[in-house]
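quick one: zinc ion bound model?
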Amino acid sequence: MFWHTRCVVEMEEEFRSMEEQISDLRNRQAVLVNDLDKINIAGSTGSRSTVEWVTSRFDVSKANASDLVFAARELKRHRRIEHRLVERVLTFDRTVAMLRLAVAGADESTLVHSESLDLAGVGRLTARQRKITRKDERQTFQERFAVAQPNLDESAWRVSGVLPGVGGKLFADALCMRGDELRLLPDGDTCTRGQRQADALVAMAMDSLDRTGDTEASGAGPSVSVFVNLNEANGTGGEKGCEVEYGPRVGPNTLEELLCTGSVQIIGLEDGQPVVRSRTSRAISPAIRRFVANRDGGCTISGCTSRYRLEPHHIQLRSHGGSHDPENLTTLCWFHHHIAIHQQGLRIDPDSPTLCRRLIRTPVGPDPPV
Ligand SMILES: [Zn+2]
Ligand SMILES: [Zn+2]
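yep, here:
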């Protein structure tokens, strides 16, 4: 143990010493760049800038070249920082960060204070120093946008955008808060923060389309048509997915979800023409919905207190012959129903008590017959 600890201390020392040498060398490079800048090396060699010249000439990354050129130009104007770099008190990376802070208008005491922060902290301090003019604000506002772009078959969407400061903070806080409300999965499984926020965004979108989101039991699900290409389905067991009418291409999980929540009509296509049409699967009747909601009194998953978008779920899946019989239905919140069961593949343990259900992970079964 002692040997191991000593070894790590020695390696740390060696690492620190190397970093000092790297900083020394970068400093010397910065002096050279400063001299070459003065004789307009970029212009005389046909480069657009000194950064471009350093990048192309010495195979240096653009970020490193930018730091080098920036330091070369600013070090002579900030003698105290330069002195501390030469004295090996500051690494080259910290020197560049402090120079950026100084250029942003920080006073001497702020610069001294920055030495007690990590490099990310110095970056944040620098961002706060920058003054935002009316022109900057207007430009940020003009450049605001949000888009949701589907891939070619609409089976996934990429969401991106730029929001002005206050609106963006509001959005981030709301997404964070909503994501944190979503429950953890059993067996120690957790969603990542990004996954929780993606689910939160969908929930927020649903609420804005349907203001009944927090009612005891929302109404019957949508009635949709699902098109299945029989030429492909016959050959692959339906793995190629299917298309929802006027909507995205979906896979077996979403198809099961549609069957559970609404009435679905399957339309078989051959060569693009409808050749078979199922009877529209009946949605759960309002009377049975009310009965099940009243019987369960909330999400039946053990420990769950969420009352968000309570819905009946078929314990034996519809695609496996499960009926609308109340014995086969259990009330679940939106997260446990849509995320945990239909998208993440967990199942209700049929042996768990009716009002204290457990979720279990079952092996991935065959795709539902469509
Ligand atoms: Zn369901
Ligand atoms: Zn729940």
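The radius of gyration is 31 Å.
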